[in-house]
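OP here, attaching both records as promised.
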Amino acid sequence: MRIVDLIRRRGPFLSLEFFPPKDRTTWPAFYAEVEKLKALDPLFVSVTYGAGGGTQDNTLDVVTHLKRDMGLEPMAHLTCVGASSEALHGFLGALKDVGIENVLALRGDPPKDRPDFRFEGQEFRHASDLVTFIRRHYPGLGVGVAGIPTKHPESASVEIDLKWLKFKLDAGGDFVVTQLFYDNEHYFGYVGKLRALGVEAPVIPGILPVMSMKSAQFIAGLNGREVFGGFYEVLERTHAEGGDEAVRALGLAHATKQAQDLIDRGAPGVHLYTLNRAEACLEIADKLKF
């Protein structure tokens, strides 16, 4: 079933994101983690897609197993990097053949091993190009798009981001999944601005608990400290006083508080970035009240 229809039929929910391990010998351990998280009754699970289609075959095999053998509703990620009409028809046709009804259309990040890569000149340059292609050729598929509550690193302003997010939704996107953030006012301000533009699509907030100072530094390097809304400095003080064990405890407590506040204030659900690890997500979910 299309995810947007599931959202309309169900109250506040949890959804989960996984990435397909490149080494297939680790798949049994990966599926064991997924099996643990089935207890959360996720509305859907999203599965990432490697840059340039690097793990495209893995994504297809994983979503097939999650749907057919584990009874979950998977959403396959799809990126512009290295995409062509022929390749997209092959991938989307294969999804359709195995009963996968949802994709997340993304521009994607430039491949790290190709410093000369440019989206200019690619057949598909923007996520909106993917949305338009899918709507034209696979109108029955559910299509999610991504949003960034604090501003895309390459964008001049949040307002420009909102303009292009609306463009993706007008092209046929059904709902939005946000990238991570650590201050809920970023999310609610973002949704308020979208509603002022006439956008009524569901906006699902994405939550990633901070599990170590190293991971916080990595997130800040990718997205800037703005995503933390002051929480980064709290993490630094906590790490100085108690090390990573204290940071993990604080990260889990903060993510739990975030998720509960989002649910209490009307978010349609919460999308947890699992990093393929069940323990942290189970700890968060165990404390939530729906």
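Record two, same layout:
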Amino acid sequence: MELRHLRYFIAVAETGSLTIAAEQRLHTSQPSLSRQIRDLEEQVGAELFIRSARGVELTAAGKAFLDHARLALTQVDAAIEAARRAAQPAKQRFALGFLTGQEMTWLPRAMNILREELPTVDITVSSDYSPDLAEGLARGKLDIAFLRAEPGFDLLYHVVSREPLVVLMPSDHHLASHESISAQDLVGEKFIAMANKAKVLRATIDDYLQREGVDIVPTQGVDNPAMVMSLVASTRGVTLIPSYVENLMPWSVVSRPLAGTPPTIDLCVGYSKANMSPVLKLFVSRLNQLVSEETTEHARSGNAL
């Protein structure tokens, strides 16, 4: 008995017709299929089908044989798949993390660095708050992440971009008519601050306001860009935020640059010292390519203006 006998038998049983099974399922001739079924019945030692003018029906023996035939083919298919997987080199896993919103800019560049490895590497991508990304790196859940240089973690950081802070406000806010905003312009406005979870950004903003001699009491604190923009639009407040958020802004909010030399915040590529992944080693070796692409893109944007 051969596997083709089982496949032919199942096709006829499921279609209820030798002609349909031959032409539509098996792409063979009806006489050839009839011979294969007779050969199978001889090997089984029982009649599997009752033939009539309306087609064929399973006998009691055929019904009993059908379930076992299906199981046998299922096991064969599973064995073939297992063999194919075993013959292929095991794929490495590489987990990328992004500060929410940054994947729009940095994911294509990261994938470009890894393009030669893609056939042999399973890559996963996630976005999260910067402290959560740092924890993911420390616990081995992530291999590399684009985040802030979070304190308190045994990680290595490489700066890939320095983003200026901008002022975010409702589209029809009275400050929107200004070409640039000074720290003093923010006095008396409803100020939405970064929550303590966003430690690095909160410290950067607080240091800037202190240097400018401005004392502002926040009305609310949030820790993600989407909520910031929602509160800015709904409460008619203002906030300071890294410029990458401009890529995410809805029509209801606008941004304006800070007057003078604005404060900047570093975006870093971070990873664990203990991570021995060869893909990570390759990625880190090509970080200069990332920085070069960012510098080139920034220069193009500047020239366009």
